[in-house]
Design a protein that fits this description.
Low-confidence stretches: none
Number of strands: 0
Helix content: 40-55%
Order of helices and strands: H
Mean pLDDT: 78
Number of helices: 1
Radius of gyration: 17 Å
Distance between the termini: 58 Å
Shape: elongated
Largest sheet: none
Amino acid sequence: MATIIVGLVVAAVLFLAARQIYKDKKSGKSSCGGNCAGCPHACGHCGDVKNE
């Protein structure tokens, strides 16, 4: 019984996290912090920012 309860809790947490990511993406929010100088992908792979 405990395994089922723990499984349901984990599934609920995963569902809520996925829903938040979906909502953020739909509203235009990005996971990028906007600090391209400290970004490991600053070589041109960072969102809409293009290094020239």
